[in-house]
Specification:
Elements: H1 4-17, E1 22-28, E2 34-39, H2 46-51, H3 66-73, H4 79-85, E3 88-94, E4 101-107, E5 110-117, E6 122-128, H5 135-140, H6 144-161, E7 166-171, E8 174-179, H7 190-197, E9 206-211, E10 216-221, E11 234-239, E12 242-244, H8 247-261, E13 268-274, E14 280-281, E15 292-293, H9 296-313
Parallel strand pairs: 1-7, 11-13
Antiparallel strand pairs: 1-2, 2-6, 3-4, 3-6, 4-5, 7-8, 9-10, 10-13, 11-12, 14-15
This protein binds adenosine-5'-diphosphate and magnesium ion.
């Protein structure tokens, strides 16, 4: 766990995995003093609430096939153990079957208390004073502004990855961004996307659709800016429902743009890729944002070809 944003990412993804349809992230001082993630998902029994902090505690592996899921979805059951070891953590959780929630307090990995309290179904993680016992890592953090922008970026990526879930980010008691679950059935919810990424994304731009058996792509690319426009690159990539920042995919994207434009301009896009989960390893990088396609040259070329096609079809070219 490197910084507050990595904690936010792990807790948000756990909330998504728990089947929540509303996830709220509350931070104070860019996550330094408080990171709280509230979900209305399946919750945990009192036993699970204790077990989830064991290393390799994942409950997401129930069958032999699930071993493949360690590779494909990145469940390793390590996140909570490492967050608990460097913070003051409170877990409040309740399943539908339980009459009461448990409130479980851990400091620096040591159990402090466990109580029954009355709250609705779901899970809340409260992380205070991250890195209180690892001053070197605390010193490694950048300014509040930078750490806040990292959290906001992670929040945005997870929210874009899950259009069917409502998300809110509250920072220093102010609501920074809030989106509802999308009601759009086919294609991309432009309003929701624009709320998360800015008004430029509301008009949609160039749509990309690819239905190859090896890879499906759906998404949109904004019209390339004029050379004089001051826009910064905004590349949002998702693979099988998870945000990625993959070198091969980014390279393919840039190559396609260069092929059509003959020059390099900032790229702004939201692209959702799906491949058969057994065709990709997601655990090659601890942050899980680099992936490894088994047939990487085929995937690379299919991405290039389909982006080139979409750009040309839209009338972009020298
Ligand atoms: P992983 O997500 O890789 O399984 P984690 O350390 O992130 O490992 O979480 C360990 C386990 O704790 C999960 O497998 C899940 O059973 C449980 N868990 C964590 N967060 C939640 C949550 N928000 N709601 C319900 N269960 C959770
Ligand atoms: Mg997890």
């Amino acid at each position: 766990m490197q910084r507050p944003a990595s904690v936010v990412k792990e807790l948000m993804e756990n909330a998504v995995d728990a089947g929540a349809d509303q996830v709220t992230v509350v931070i104070q001082d860019a996550g330094r003093t408080l990171i709280q993630v509230i979900d209305n998902g399946c919750g945990m029994s009192p036993d699970q609430a204790v077990l989830c902090f064991e290393r390799h505690a994942t409950s997401k592996l129930q069958t032999a096939e699930d071993l493949q899921n360690i590779l494909t979805f990145g469940f390793r059951g390590e996140a909570l153990a490492s967050i608990a070891s460097v913070s003051h953590l409170t877990l409040i959780t309740k399943t539908e079957q339980q009459d009461f929630a448990v409130e479980y307090v851990i400091e620096g990995g040591e159990e402090k208390s466990m109580e029954e309290i009355g709250v609705p179904n779901g899970t809340t993680f409260i992380i205070r004073n991250i890195f209180f016992n690892t001053p070197a890592r605390r010193r490694f953090l950048k300014s509040d502004r930078t750490e806040f922008l990292r959290i906001k970026d992670i929040f945005t990526r997870v929210a874009l990855a899950h259009p069917d879930i409502g998300f809110e980010l509250i920072s220093d008691s102010k609501s920074v961004v809030r989106v509802s679950p999308s009601k759009v059935e086919n294609g991309i919810d432009l309003r929701r996307t624009a709320t998360l990424l800015g008004a430029d994304f509301s008009s949609g731009g160039i749509s990309v659709i690819c239905e190859d058996p090896a890879i499906q792509i759906e998404g949109m690319i904004l019209e390339p800016p004029k050379e004089t426009d001051a826009v910064s690159e905004q590349i949002y990539l998702f693979l099988n429902g998870r945000p990625i920042a993959d070198k091969l995919v980014t390279h393919a994207l840039k190559e396609a743009f260069f092929e059509v434009l003959g020059k390099t301009l900032p790229i702004r896009c939201v692209l959702y890729f799906s491949v058969d989960p057994s065709e990709v390893d997601v655990n090659v990088h601890p942050r899980k944002d680099e992936v490894r396609f088994h047939n990487s040259s085929l995937i690379h070329d299919l991405i290039v070809d389909n982006i080139v096609l979409a750009l040309r079809k839209y009338g972009i070219g020298p």
